[in-house]
Structures are given as structure tokens and as C-alpha cells.
Specification:
Distance between the termini: 51 Å
Strand content: 15-25%
Strand order of the largest sheet: 2-1-9-8-10-11-12-13-14
Shape: globular
Structural class: alpha/beta
Helix content: 25-40%
Number of helices: 24
Number of strands: 32
Radius of gyration: 31 Å
């Protein structure tokens, strides 16, 4: 440190610490360690501060094994870590489970110890992303090799500014922290977990680092931030670790930082650095996932079969590493289990990964636990992951293997691109079907808002939602079922359709339903409504409706919606929820929400004449009266609970006023993305700050229609409800009808209990709702756009908020 005394060592955003000051802080902390006769490891709490870095270095120089503990870990995890190796807290570190003080203990029984080898410098713990974390013993030789290699590979040295957005308490972050400081570089610590992505982008603009070190997931998030170009364009090296990288991630980086060299390094808690893949700016990129790269120095990597025999290039097997610079063993149940060492000090370790070599580079193809054969073919998890991430609208993906009734099945968890409408599951399945062989196509596609991650940034596989198992297949039993099954299979890209399969559970949505209606009319000469697709649900039920050539929805306005619990059998005692569809929406839009409303019976209400011939309701008040007629026919007394999406929220409020005048009570209304600006703002009697201006802006932003289009729309509206049109055209026409009825409606304060749930792109201010509904209980925002909030993966959060509002139980 004396060689760089006046240079900045650590920059945390709050403070600048020179190497001279860092040396003084390390010396002060070293003096406080004490307990010379206490052989236990030292546990250091690492929170990304300069103080924590000084404590870490002091602990490393103490001669005792060091347990890095990330400050974001839950208490139970910390207790398990320090308890596994009987560690004590570094002075000043408040760590649960460290029951004895850091200073020398008073006379009495000696503290319990684990006999750690004297060569051990660090005790690292595996991430636990695939199971129980393990304590791994790192000898000093591993870290000396690691620090020197990182300096060479990443260019860490004097006059270099390295920005680290990795947790210091984990392997990847510890690497860069020690690699930068022991090579004389300046370390800029960025903490996106606490401050958020936008703050990280601002920090990068301020620091102007030479290199940036982070996880692939964080790189994707930063590349998608508004000021990403200003933050990244001057960075010379961007290095990731922890997970495989898709070529699309590097292309996105190049668009923002065309001169940056990209480096992905692979490794594990047992091996330290394993491989480096260095991609210069002009280097061509492959399609799909990048290779792991060439082996790290002093690491011999082989691909072996189950018997340990080395396999030739191109063949897939277990990844096996031999080196004197890997871990020396584990601590298991209080016992040290050392790896066997050869005379030259080299040790062998077989990773839990499978891979192959090609042109001197290692290609990882998945975990050993995920290795299966389907129809005699070995499944390549990396190829499936790459194909999933290449689908438009998918931002992140992880592929795993599950076993159902003794049969292996592929499960893909998918996270949509932030700010975009998630693609339909059926569309994703169809896209994968064009690039993957049949035996590699996932059995289950599960949309999630974001992949769950551990504190280190890795995907937490233990937190991934379980797939919903399809019922055992019942072969189609009638001619109609037999003809309908291949139509479903084609639209949903699902094979072996059975009589009990459910349309929406297999990924069907409103757009798929439109195409299904067309196919049914072409095949059977029968026209059915979208609500029939939902209420019939299963293949067998829909076939029965086709055979009967009848639509049982109540006057085309009321539609029973599917329940997650059963097929409309055990409804007795369940509270009713009436769901009001928005302008131009069918009750079908509520089907995903209804499936998540366990314990409720949900009944959808949609515009009169949307699906059957009739006279449309030209005003919101008239639509509300018609809905009240249907509601009281189903439940004459109440009390009632309403959910309204878009304009349906306003209709629900008017229906509640009508019911109140007849002495009936509406206990709660949940408005889902009811937009107060635009058409509703033109005649509103509610004083909303800036609402009038927003409404005017919305009106101006609406492209003026040409005269011929205007008259064509007027003529279409005159025949709306009487002249039947294709489903999409019918929905668009009724959406325009709803827009006009909203412009004529005078929005008044609603006096009852109400909760508002807004989509992330809703332009309204949350506080407006407390003027619209003085008894408003809460205003929430959820991911997804206006319609996306009712679709997977965002509908899960929407449903949680609806259940909470109706039950009064906080989520």
C-alpha cells in the first residue's frame, strides 16, 4: 500500500480512501483483533463500505481463516454459516450466531472449534442456488494465483479505475475487490441492490471507470436504462461472472459502448477462476450463448465420462479440473474433508456441470443434475435457454428438469422484457417449436415477472415456482373432441391434447381464442363467442357446446369465469365477485385473474351486444343499469364485491350507486387501471391537479381521423350490435363506443370503499384517486401495461392485490 500512498484506493460514493488511509485503517483494526489463543475463523460483515473493506484486509492479514458474510443475507443464513465453522465476529461486526465476543474470552471451557488447516485463507460458501450451501476451504495459494491472474486478464493495475457492482461478500465481488486493491487500482464500489439500477447508472457516469464488473442480469438492466449510453460509452472493459451470457447481451452492450472489450469469466467456489472468454469489440459473435472460454492459468480442465476417462473434443461429459490453485476441501457437519493431493500439490475436483471442448474453448451445457435423455437423445439445457432468450419479448430465462410420475420433463421459467407486453405462452411455445427438436421443447413454460435471485445475483432455483402438472391424459371420446384436439394442438403448440385439458391453462389467451373461434366456424360451421371458450374451459366441455350449437352466457353479458379449484362444481359458500370488463373487452380478459382468485366465485360482465345481436348501451349509466339487473338476478340481496378493469371500473361505481339507492350495499370496488385522464377527464366534476391539461394533451395526441374514416366509424356505430363483424373488428368498434360514452359521462366522487391498482404505464397521479373516492383504501402499481396486468406474469401480483383488498388481509 505504501507504493500507492497518495492514490485513491476505495471510492464508495460517500468517501474517498487513499491507500495510505486504507493502510492506517487496516493497522487499527488489526490491533483490535486480539484473542491470540482463539483459533476460530473470523467472520467479517461486508456491506460495500470502506470500513468493511479495511476490516476484510485486516482479517486476511491476521493469519486466521476469514469468512466473508454479505450484509444482505438473512439472519438464519448467517447463523448457519458461522455455526458451520464455529466462527467468531470480527471486532465491530454485529453478526447473528457469533455468540462469543471478539476479544479474548474469560476463563472457562474453550470455545468449540473446527480444525481448519493452517494453509486456509478464506472459507467461502457456495451460493445455495441449487440446494444447501457448503463451506469451502480456500488456501492462500488459490488467492495469490487468483489476484495475479485477475490483474493480467482484466487490466487491473495502477491508474486503472474499476467499478464493481458485485457484492463484496461473494466470490465474484471478493475477486474484484482483492484483485483491484492488491494490484494498485482504484476500486469504485457501486451498490445497485440498495440504490437501484438508476442510481448505479448515475454512479457510473460520475466515476467514469475504465472497467465495469457485474452480473449478466445487472448488465441487461443497465443496458435498458435511459442513461445507459452516457454511463457506458467510455468503459474499456465490461466483465461479468456468475452465469452464462447470451450473445444478445453483448450486442446490446456494443450498441452503447462500441469500443468496450467484453469478458465473461466462469468459475465456482471450489475452483476460483475456471475460464475466461474475452470478446474484443470487432470479434464476430455467435448466435445463442457464449462459450465459457479458454481455461484459466494453472488450471487443467478435462471432459470425462462417468468412469473418469477423458473424452475427445466435441463429446459432452463431466467437467473435471486439476490444479494446485483450487480449494483444499469442505467442512461438513463440523468435520474437515480434504481433497486428495498429489505429490506436486495438485488436486482434482469434478464440477457439477457438464460441458464439451471445441477449438480450445469450454462450452458448458448444463448441470449434471439436469442431465437427462428424452427419446434416447441427450438434452442440451444451454441450447434450450439460448432459444428461449432469443424469443421476442423474453428478457431472461432459466431451464431446469423436473420429474413427474417417473417421467423427466423440461421446465422453462421466462421473464419478459421490462416495459413491454409479455408474449403469450402459446406464442413462445410456437417460437421454440421452430428452432428446437421435439425432445428438447419444454413441457412447462412459466412466465414470471423476474427470475428470483440470490444475494450474489445468481438465479435462485429453489425459489422458482413449481409447474402445474397436467392431469393424466384422457383421449378424446367423441368425433367433435377428436376434430377439436388437433386445432388446440396447432394453436397452443402442445401435443397430446386430452379431453380434460384446459384452454387457458395451456397458454391460450384472448388473441388465441379469436383464432380458435375462426377454426371452429370453418370446421364445424358453428359460431361461438369468446366467453364460451372461457366458460367451457376444457376440450370436452367446449365440444359439448359445439355439439349443442348453443351459447349459454346470460344474454351475452354474463360469463362464468374459471376457478383454480374446480370446474364450477363446489361453489356453495364462496363469496361472489362481479368483474366488469372494459370498453371493447370480453369477459375472457378476466380468465387469468379468476384462476388466481382461490376461494371466490368470479362472474364476468361485458358490454351488451358485444357477442349477440342487440342494442348497445350508449351511456355508462345505461350499461350500469343492465349490469345491475343481471347482478340482482344472480344475488338478490348482496352485499356485493366488484372488480372493474379500465372503463369497467367506472361502470362498477355507477352500478354501486344504483344498488345503494335500492338499499343494497357494495362493500368494496377494486378499479384495475381505470384511467382518469383522456375521455373521462373531459367532463369530470372531480378536481384533479393537472388532470384537465392531461386530458387535453391526450385529446390532442389522438391522430385526427380523415373525413371518410370519421363517417365510416359513425355508420359502423349506428349498426353496432346488429351487424355481426369479425371478433377483432367487433371489439375495436365497441372500444370506440366505450370511449364516446366516457366522454359523455360526468365523473363524480364515489362515496364507498375502493382500491385502485394501476399499471406501470398509467399516466395518472396516484393521489387523484383520493379525490375520486374519498374512502379510497390504497393505490397500488403493478408491472405490465394496461392489458398486460391481467396476463401472466403480472396477473399474479394483480390477483394478490385484489384478494387483499376484498379480504382486508394485507399482502
Amino acid at each position: 500500500m505504501s507504493a500507492h500512498a497518495d492514490r485513491t484506493a476505495v471510492h464508495t460514493g460517500q468517501a474517498l480512501i487513499t491507500y495510505a488511509e486504507l493502510g492506517r485503517q487496516v493497522a487499527q483494526r488489526s490491533d483490535r483483533i486480539g484473542g491470540a489463543d482463539d483459533p476460530r475463523p473470523l467472520a467479517v460483515r461486508l456491506d460495500g463500505s470502506g470500513d468493511a473493506v479495511a476490516a476484510l484486509i485486516a482479517a486476511l492479514l491476521s493469519g486466521r481463516p476469514v469468512v466473508p458474510v454479505d450484509a444482505a443475507l438473512p439472519s438464519e443464513r448467517v447463523r448457519a454459516m458461522v455455526g458451520a465453522v464455529h466462527a467468531r465476529a470480527f471486532p465491530g461486526c454485529d453478526l447473528p450466531g457469533c455468540d462469543l465476543p471478539a476479544a479474548a474470552t474469560a476463563a472457562g471451557p474453550p470455545p468449540p472449534t473446527v480444525r481448519i488447516p493452517p494453509s486456509c485463507l478464506v472459507i467461502a460458501f457456495t451460493s445455495g442456488s441449487t440446494g444447501r450451501p457448503k463451506a469451502v476451504l480456500h488456501p492462500a495459494a488459490l488467492w495469490l494465483n487468483q489476484i495475479e491472474e485477475l490483474g493480467e486478464e482484466l487490466g487491473l493495475g495502477p491508474d486503472h479505475r474499476a467499478a464493481q457492482a458485485l457484492p463484496v461478500g461473494y466470490g465474484g465481488g471478493l475477486d474484484i475487490t482483492l484483485g483491484a486493491l492488491f494490484n494498485g487500482a482504484t476500486l469504485h464500489l457501486v451498490e445497485p441492490r440498495l440504490d437501484g439500477v438508476d442510481a448505479a447508472v448515475r454512479a457510473l457516469r460520475h466515476h467514469a471507470p475504465d472497467s465495469l464488473h457485474l452480473s449478466p442480469a445487472l448488465l441487461r438492466a443497465i443496458c435498458g436504462a435511459p442513461d445507459a449510453h452516457a454511463a457506458l460509452h467510455a468503459v474499456g472493459v465490461v466483465a461479468t461472472c456468475g452465469e452464462a451470457v447470451h450473445s444478445a447481451d453483448v450486442r446490446a452492450l456494443r450498441a452503447l459502448a462500441p469500443s468496450a472489450t467484453f469478458i465473461n469469466r466462469s468459475g465456482s467456489s471450489e475452483t476460483g477462476n475456471l475460464t475466461f472468454n474475452v470478446v474484443p469489440p470487432a470479434c464476430p459473435l455467435p448466435d445463442g450463448m457464449l462459450s465459457a472460454g479458454r481455461p484459466a492459468r494453472h488450471k487443467q480442465i478435462r471432459i470425462v465420462d462417468d468412469a473418469g476417462t477423458t473424452l475427445p473434443d466435441g463429446e459432452i461429459g463431466h467437467v473435471h479440473v486439476t490444479s494446485a490453485h483450487i480449494a483444499s476441501g469442505y467442512v461438513v457437519d463440523g468435520r474437515v474433508e480434504l481433497f486428495e493431493s498429489a505429490a506436486d500439490g495438485r488436486r482434482d475436483h469434478r464440477l457439477g456441470d457438464r460441458g464439451r471442448f471445441h477449438d480450445g474453448e469450454l462450452h458448458l451445457v448444463g448441470r449434471t443434475d439436469d442431465t437427462i435423455k428424452i427419446r434416447g437423445y441427450r438434452v442440451d439445457i444451454a441450447e434450450i435457454t439460448s432459444a428461449a432468450m432469443a424469443v421476442a419479448g423474453i428478457d431472461d430465462a432459466v431451464v431446469t428438469i423436473t420429474t413427474t410420475r417417473g417421467r423427466p420433463e423440461i421446465v422453462a421459467h421466462l421473464a419478459p422484457t421490462p416495459g413491454r407486453r409479455p408474449p403469450a405462452v402459446a406464442d413462445v411455445r410456437a417460437a421454440l417449436g421452430t428452432v428446437l427438436p421435439t425432445w428438447m421443447q419444454p413441457t412447462h413454460l412459466i412466465m414470471v415477472a423476474a427470475l428470483p435471485r440470490t444475494s450474489s445475483g445468481k438465479v435462485d432455483r429453489t425459489a422458482l415456482p413449481d409447474p402445474v402438472d397436467r392431469a393424466p391424459r384422457v383421449a378424446p371420446r367423441s368425433v367433435t373432441e377428436g376434430l377439436l384436439a388437433p386445432i388446440w394442438a396447432d394453436l397452443l403448440s402442445v401435443s397430446d391434447i386430452g379431453a380434460d385439458d384446459d384452454f387457458t391453462s395451456l397458454g391460450g389467451d384472448s388473441l388465441t381464442a379469436v383464432e380458435l373461434i375462426r377454426r371452429i366456424e370453418d370446421t364445424f360451421g358453428v359460431r361461438i363467442s369468446p366467453s364460451t371458450v372461457v366458460s367451457a374451459g376444457t376440450l370436452a366441455a367446449l365440444a359439448t357446446r359445439i355439439d349443442g350449437q348453443a351459447d349459454h352466457a346470460g344474454a351475452g353479458v354474463v360469463a362464468e369465469l374459471p376457478s383454480v379449484d374446480d370446474n364450477f362444481i363446489r361453489w356453495a359458500g364462496r363469496p361472489l365477485v362481479f368483474a366488469f370488463a372494459g370498453a371493447g373487452e370480453a369477459a375472457l380478459a378476466f380468465a387469468p385473474l379468476s384462476r388466481r382468485m382461490r376461494g371466490y366465485r368470479v362472474i364476468g360482465l361485458q358490454a351488451h351486444a358485444l357477442e349477440r345481436r342487440g342494442l348497445p348501451d350508449w351511456t355508462i349509466t345505461r350499461a350500469a343499469r343492465r349490469c345491475v339487473d343481471h347482478i340482482t338476478a344472480i344475488d338478490p340481496t348482496g352485499p356485493y364485491q366488484f372488480v372493474g378493469h379500465s372503463l369497467g371500473g367506472v361502470i362498477a361505481m355507477e352500478a354501486a350507486r344504483i344498488l345503494a339507492r335500492s338499499g343494497r350495499e357494495v362493500s368494496h370496488i377494486v378499479c384495475l387501471d381505470t384511467i382518469l385522464t383522456g375521455p373521462l377527464g373531459t367532463r369530470s366534476s372531480v378536481a384533479l391537479t393537472d388532470c384537465t391539461a392531461s386530458a387535453a394533451h391526450a385529446a390532442q395526441s389522438r391522430a385526427p381521423a380523415r373525413r371518410t374514416e370519421l363517417w365510416r366509424t359513425r355508420m359502423a356505430l349506428l349498426t353496432a350490435g346488429w351487424r355481426r363483424r369479425p371478433t377483432e373488428a367487433q371489439w375495436a368498434l365497441f372500444h370506440e363506443l366505450g370511449r364516446r360514452s366516457a366522454m359523455l359521462h360526468r365523473l363524480r366522487p364515489y362515496p364507498g370503499a375502493l382500491t385502485a391498482v394501476l399499471a406501470e404505464d398509467n399516466p395518472d397521479l396516484a393521489e387523484w384517486w383520493y379525490s375520486v373516492a374519498p374512502e379510497c383504501r390504497a393505490v397500488h402499481r403493478v408491472g405490465g401495461d394496461h392489458n398486460g396486468m391481467l396476463r401472466s406474469p403480472h396477473v399474479d401480483r394483480t390477483a394478490d392485490l385484489v384478494r387483499s383488498a376484498l379480504s382486508g388481509v394485507p399482502v
